[in-house]
Design a protein that fits this description.
heterodimer; A: alpha/beta; 8-stranded mixed sheet; 11 helices; 49% helix; 13% strand; elongated; B: alpha/beta; Four Helix Bundle (Hemerythrin (Met), subunit A); Rossmann fold; 434 Repressor (Amino-terminal Domain); 3 domains; 19 helices; flat
């Protein structure tokens, strides 16, 4: 909770500054709705979700005879909370080897998130191994290897430019023969509208499920928290090609608000599992809807 | 899902039954459409407000040009305003600085600084300068390795000393090395940072103080949302940026962040980049026209695409996509496409949905009847070919061409034109396949290459 609040405090300040201004304690009038709309749009909720939320709050306010802005607080919170389900536990237990495939566009923070995940699961007693599946970007392999050293987790890698499918295959073999129970696979950043690269991802997935029939058990899509409406398209395309089971939202320690979480969830139904709140290896935390929404309202 | 701006404006004005002068009511309703379109394109809210009020001022009472409909008149004003706000492509400015001129690359984590640094070096070398790279990102693991790998890949001189020294010290020594190597421009790759990270922003100030850079370029992801304003303002207020580089524009984001960042900082957008491959065709000067069309007009293209898609069985679409990717696109596919396009409605409407096309229609550069008749001609020619000829265009020799021309009532020259047009399409697909910017014939270079039509 502590770190969640600390990281989100900036998010909170920027959005809640506005929200408390709106919610202050005045009569609800037309300006209230304009201000609320503006605040939600600037938090990257997108027009559609913003309209849904504003309409819902308006209706409730009318139905319940609320006239003061300070009474709107709870209504707004519950309308936001209702838009997104709490994440179920990750499907990575109950078998010899569980496999997490991590995907996303360039620069969203896949490799860094994987390092943090590896650290987290190792702390929880898991026997983790990583696969350096980004064989495209210069030094992506080295980047994962450095993180692996820091987290004390082995990394299976091949040369830059080699076939990512082959690395993935090797990593699965290594994980099985050395008795690891959790394999996390890094992949090259790819834009969701690049047909060839999305096909390559399908191929990688095929390699995994051929080796371990029900794998990958989790496919995590890493989204950059500063991304705007394009996050929706990323969600859609990655969901289509690789059946995304969960989301990781990074870079939420800045002033960005991460409001696209709501629309992406509505669109593809994959829950937000983790959010990135900083540079440190401990700064990837499980997502909690109530905390997230509350953090947008809490006083510092 | 998103209605296009021009469609929206058209509906609004149709509903209002507007006359020859754009009235205040027209504008009020139209500006709601503009606001929505810009917000959907990720333009930041304060910028949208400014933009809308400027357009409103210009639009009220504007005389509607005689060849334009009111919604087109407003669209024209919006387009002009957009172009003005985006500004011209900025050029690098080294005046008043001594060699080696320093360029600092700054930005958020993952925005593409390291990749852009290497690409910029290649760009400068092509311009006849002597670029030099300095690796000063000591935070992200293997960031130094990344820059060194890229430098070696394209045979560029560089300086690195690992990650133990402080970045300002590294840059200082790097600059001495650049001087030693007789480099004329030194590009400094810095670590990604949030604009509110006090310690890291201080470090940038220190580097700036010690190197007196000619350029400080903010590298920004084209997919950035409302946050664009905070990022650009934050970096600009703290260290004073001199230009922007827009990355990942090969994605399908509408790119409103470009407008936001340019508007709040007033600094020009200088370059745009695509992909992680370091080459001359993945990094180029900023094209304001292209980005303006994208922010305003992608909806049009999307409408067209969606409309086109609904006509396909999904399998058919996949088959075609595969063929395009593998460059197996035959004349038979060409004919099928043509038929599909025609089944979407009158050609004037279909063309109006392509960015740039509606503008040409507006300016009278496109005669719809003329286009319609050319397309009919192409269709007739394709119909006169045998299936084998359409599947294997290579076999089309002189006598076959003569037969086809006779069969479709045209000259052999016309048959050749269709084949030429088909080859151009193949080339275009090849470019698309390789992830380059397609130079769409007719959009970028007038109508010359539409001869086949």
């Amino acid at each position: 909770m502590g770190i969640f609040k600390r990281g989100l405090s900036r998010t909170r300040q920027s959005i809640s500054g506005r929200i408390s201004q709106i919610l202050g304690n005045t009569e609800i009038d037309e300006d209230t709705w304009d201000d609320l709309e503006a605040t939600l749009i600037q938090a990257d909720l997108g027009l559609e979700t913003t309209d849904t939320v504003v309409d819902f709050v308006k209706e409730t306010v009318t139905r319940e005879g609320i006239t003061r802005t300070n009474q709107m607080n709870e209504v707004l919170k519950s309308s936001l909370t209702a838009l997104i389900d709490p994440p179920p536990p990750l499907n990575i237990t109950g078998r010899d080897l569980s496999i997490i495939l991590v995907v996303g566009v360039n620069g969203s923070g896949k490799t860094t998130s994987i390092a943090k995940l590896a650290h987290r699961f190792k702390e929880q007693g898991r026997n983790v191994i990583l696969a350096a599946g980004d064989t495209f970007r210069a030094a992506a392999i080295e980047q994962l290897q450095r993180w692996g050293e820091r987290a004390g987790v082995p990394v299976i890698a091949n040369q830059q430019g080699s076939d990512p499918g082959a690395v993935v295959y090797d990593a699965i073999q290594a994980a099985q023969s050395r008795g690891h129970d959790l394999l996390i696979i890094d992949t090259a950043g790819r834009l969701h509208n690049n047909y060839n690269l999305m096909r390559e991802l399908e191929k990688i997935k095929g390699v995994i499920s051929k080796a371990v029939p029900d794998a990958p058990h989790e496919v995590l899509l890493v989204l950059d928290g500063t991304t705007g409406q394009n996050a929706l398209k990323q969600g859609q395309k990655f969901a289509e090609s690789s059946n995304v089971t969960g989301l990781v939202i990074t870079k939420l320690d800045g002033t960005s608000r991460g409001g696209m979480i709501f629309s992406v969830f509505t669109e593809i139904g994959a829950p937000v599992q983790f959010i990135g709140l900083g540079e440190g290896i401990d700064d990837l935390v499980p997502f909690d809807v109530n905390q997230f929404v509350n953090s947008l309202f809490d006083e510092s | 899902m998103f209605e296009s701006l021009s469609q929206r404006l058209q509906n609004t004005f149709d509903r209002l039954g507007s006359g020859r002068v754009v009235t205040e009511q027209d504008v009020k309703d139209a500006m709601r459409d503009v606001r929505m379109a810009l917000l959907e394109a990720d333009v930041a809210l304060p910028i949208v407000k400014d933009f809308v009020s400027r357009v409103r001022e210009r639009a009220i009472g504007a005389e509607v040009h005689k060849t334009l409909r009111p919604h087109e008149q407003v669209l024209k004003i919006i387009h002009e305003e957009m172009r003005e706000t985006l500004g011209e492509a900025g050029r690098l400015n080294f005046s008043g600085s001594t060699k080696p001129h320093v360029i600092m690359m700054v930005g958020l984590q993952g925005s593409g600084k390291t990749t852009s640094a290497a690409k910029l070096a290649m760009y400068l070398r092509k311009e006849g300068r002597e670029p030099f790279l300095i690796a000063a990102d000591t935070y992200r693991p293997a960031a130094v390795d990344q820059l060194v790998t890229l430098a070696k890949q394209v045979n560029m001189p560089y300086y690195e000393e690992g990650i133990s020294a402080s970045p300002p010290d590294i840059v200082k020594r790097g600059l001495a090395a650049a001087k030693e190597a007789n480099a004329s421009v030194a590009i400094v790759d810095t670590a990604g940072r949030l604009q509110i990270d006090e310690q890291l922003m201080r470090e940038l100030e220190e580097i700036k103080k010690r190197t007196d850079p000619a350029e400080i370029l903010l590298v920004a992801d084209a997919m950035t949302g409302q946050e664009a304003v905070n990022i650009a303002t934050g970096f600009n207020e703290r260290i004073g940026i001199t230009g922007l580089i827009l990355t990942k524009i090969d994605g399908d984001a509408r790119g409103g962040a470009a407008l936001s960042m340019r508007a709040v900082t007033g600094v020009p957008i200088k370059f745009m980049g695509t992909g992680e491959k370091i080459s001359l065709d993945t990094f180029e000067q900023f094209h304001p026209e292209r980005i303006a069309d994208r922010i305003l007009g992608m909806g049009d293209v999307m409408t067209l695409i969606e409309k086109a898609e609904s006509l396909y069985e999904e399998e058919e679409a996949l088959r075609l996509q595969k063929k395009m990717m593998e460059n197996n696109f035959t004349l038979q596919d060409f004919l099928d496409q043509l038929r599909k396009i025609r089944s979407m409605g009158p050609i004037s409407k279909v063309m109006g949905m392509l960015p740039g096309m509606s503008k040409m229609q507006m300016q009278g550069m496109l005669d719809n009847e003329e286009v319609e008749s050319r397309i009919s001609k192409v269709e007739a020619i394709l119909n006169s070919m045998t299936i084998t000829e359409r599947e294997r265009p290579k076999i089309l020799n002189a006598s076959r061409k003569k037969r086809i021309a006779r069969g479709s009532g045209v000259e052999v020259r016309d048959v050749n034109d269709v084949i030429k047009q088909y080859r151009q399409m193949q080339k275009l697909m090849d470019q698309l396949r390789k992830g380059r910017f397609p130079k769409i014939p007719g959009l970028t270079d007038g109508m010359d290459s539409f001869e086949g039509f």
